[in-house]
From TrEMBL:
Gene3D superfamilies: 3.40.50.2020. It comes from the Eukaryota. It is an enzyme of class 2 (transferase). Its EC number is 2.4.2.9. NCBIfam families: PRK00129.1. It comes from Hondaea fermentalgiana. The lineage of its organism: Eukaryota, Sar, Stramenopiles, Bigyra, Labyrinthulomycetes. Pathway: Pyrimidine metabolism; UMP biosynthesis via salvage pathway; UMP from uracil: step 1/1. Belongs to the UPRTase family. GO terms for biological process: pyrimidine-containing compound salvage. Its cofactor is Mg(2+). This is uracil phosphoribosyltransferase.
Length: 229
């Protein structure tokens, strides 16, 4: 119960900071999925299944917040219908390796949309470096979803945002960060560095433990999702 109260307080703080936390919005399906994702007894197959379902919800919510414009189409009956479509092309960038867990959901929702990948890590004890990048050339004209399941300290996310805004000219207001689980420290650090960037997360946990894992968290996402140790 204490951990649940901490999670609720963290979600409330996130809401005050203009971060959308799905677990704080009464979405019972998200709560049920996250409980199974967190359970250390969940097999890899079950973990992947529940993660994929939760991620799909996060992606759908993020797409629902993007800017739209009016558009008219003609139906097979010859009638005209007014509606709305995305105002800008939508692109997705995953932060390797764990961010690739989001790609299946994004491609299912937005088939044919541009995608890219970034690998950010410390090399030989140095500061964070971009070790690999493969990004669409037209990112500056897109609404960009930047995806990583866990937002802990925020350092990897900030480095990735620096690449998108500095090297590819993406306006921060057109970037949405997508996470499964975040913590207040990571959110704070990202927002201080990029206050215009929107963050959408399934849950906000209390903080980091002494091993720098998000707590209560879900352990090592990459190991559990990809079946590695």
């Amino acid at each position: 119960m204490a951990e649940r109260r901490e999670e609720n307080r963290a979600c409330a703080a996130a809401a005050a900071a203009e971060v959308r936390c799905l677990a704080g919005e009464g979405m019972k399906s998200v709560d049920a999925l996250l409980l199974r994702v967190r359970d250390r007894e969940s097999s890899q197959d079950r973990f992947v299944f529940y993660v994929d379902r939760a991620i799909k919800l996060v992606v759908e919510v993020a797409l629902g917040e993007l800017a739209t414009e009016k558009k008219t189409v003609v139906t097979p009956t010859g009638a005209q219908v007014d509606g709305y479509d995305f105002a800008r092309p939508v692109a997705a960038v995953s932060i390797l390796r764990s961010g690739d867990a989001f790609m299946q959901a994004f491609n299912a929702c937005m088939p044919g949309s541009p995608t890219g990948k970034l690998l950010v890590a410390k090399h030989a004890g140095s500061e964070l470096q971009v070790l690999y990048s493969k990004l669409p050339k037209n990112l500056a004209s897109c609404s960009v979803l930047l995806m990583d399941p866990l937002l802990a300290t925020g350092s990897t996310m900030i480095k990735s945002l620096q690449v998108l805004t500095g090297e590819y000219g993406v306006d921060p207001q057109h970037i949405t960060v997508l996470c499964l689980i975040s913590c207040p420290a990571g959110i704070k650090n990202v927002q201080e560095a990029f206050p215009q960037v929107r963050i959408i997360t399934a849950a906000v946990d209390a903080g980091l433990n002494k091993e720098h894992f998000i707590s209560p968290g879900l352990g090592s996402f990459g190991d559990r999702y990809f079946g590695t140790r």
